[in-house]
Write a structure and sequence with these properties.
- Helix 4 runs parallel beside helix 5 (101-115), helix 5 (101-115) packs across helix 6 and helix 8 (166-182) runs parallel beside helix 9.
- The protein is α/β, with parallel strands linked by helices and 272 residues long.
- It has eleven helices and eight strands.
- The chain has helices at residues 13-22, 34-42, 54-57, 69-82, 101-115, 129-137, 153-156, 166-182, 194-203, 224-227, 245-261; strands spanning 26-30, 47-50, 87-91, 119-121, 142-147, 186-190, 208-211, 219-222.
- The protein starts with 12 loop residues before the first helix and ends in an 11-residue tail after the last helix.
- The protein folds into two domains: 13-241, TIM Barrel, CATH 3.20.20; 245-272.
- It has an eight-stranded parallel beta barrel with strand order 1-2-3-4-5-6-7-8, surrounded by seven helices.
- Bound molecules: 3-methyl-2-oxobutanoic acid.
- 3-methyl-2-oxobutanoic acid (KIV) binds at residues 30, 49, 51-53, 91, 188, 211, 221, 223.
Length: 272
């Protein structure tokens, strides 16, 4: 299959809003390193997210909480160097913006200055309003994140679908409108009912990007390791696997080991 490269111009936050207006779906995927980011960008991805899911898939933690700002900066620097067209969005990690808007703007400035990313993503609505305002007033574009917000997993106690009940659904809708009014350029909606994601998408002017939020959002995002079948332990209903790289890599590595053991590698042609 060829790559989807209809428009070779660099993706900007403004262009994402225009995509929503003309009904063009937005494709977003995570990346954490130079080599994978380069392939994903060449394939025509609109947005590459350096997600704090790096904590899980890159560092083997069971939650996103342990990853630090320094570590997120390291991953983002590598991705930034590879990406020519996609918009690069970096997650601010847990503890770098909640509850202290001064620290929030400091973290966001560090992320932008030290990595050259295009925007940052933070989780929450009304409770992080001051941080959102302060970061935006520093000229830093923000993507919001509502619904299942993994940095609050200890508050939720479960990774189950959020906002099924009226009260939580109304709060999510209010938070989405708030983020829109404050000037965020997009919102990730994670693991919420499809009908609610549709309502949010129809209400706000900025693009919504869903993960486990049904087909009506303006775009979709997945974690690269899940989507490529590198990580096989995580199989939620919303995940579509496009490859089985776990087996592909394992078989290739086993083949390499066999060739070494059998004195087959390297051969004459592969030697100097
Ligand atoms: O960190 C991440 O990968 C994310 C996506 C799940 C949206 O926030």
């Amino acid at each position: 299959m060829s790559t989807y490269t209809e428009d070779l111009r660099a993706v900007t936050t403004q262009r994402l809003i225009e995509m929503k207006q003309r009904g063009e779906k937005i494709a977003m995927l995570t990346a954490y390193d130079y080599s994978m980011a380069s392939i994903i960008d060449k394939a025509g991805m609109d947005v590459i997210l350096v997600g704090d899911s790096a904590s899980n898939v890159m560092a083997g933690n069971s939650t996103t909480l342990p990853v630090t700002l320094d570590q997120m900066i390291w991953y983002t620097q590598a991705v930034r160097k590879a990406v020519k067209r996609a918009l690069v969005v970096a997650d601010l990690p847990f503890g770098s913006y909640q509850g202290n808007s001064k620290e929030a703007v400091h973290s966001a400035i560090r992320m932008m200055k030290e990595t050259g990313c295009d925007a940052i993503k933070i989780e929450g609505g009304l409770e992080i309003k001051d941080s959102v305002q302060r970061i935006l007033s520093a000229g830093i574009p923000i993507m919001g994140h509502l619904g299942l917000t993994p940095q609050s997993i200890n508050k939720f106690g479960t990774y189950a679908v959020r906002a099924r009940e009226t009260e939580e659904a109304q709060k999510l809708l209010d938070d989405a409108q708030l983020l829109d009014e404050l000037g965020c350029f997009g919102i990730v909606l994670e693991k919420i009912p499809a009908d609610l994601a549709k309502r949010v998408t129809e209400t706000v002017h900025i693009p919504t990007i869903g993960i486990g939020a049904g087909p009506h959002t303006d775009g979709q995002v997945l974690v690269m390791h899940d989507m490529l079948g590198i990580n096989t332990e995580f199989s939620p209903r919303f995940l579509r696997r496009y490859a089985n790289l776990h087996d592909e890599i394992k078989n290739s590595v086993a083949h390499y080991i066999k060739d070494i053991k059998n004195h087959d590698f390297p051969n004459e042609k592969e030697s100097y």
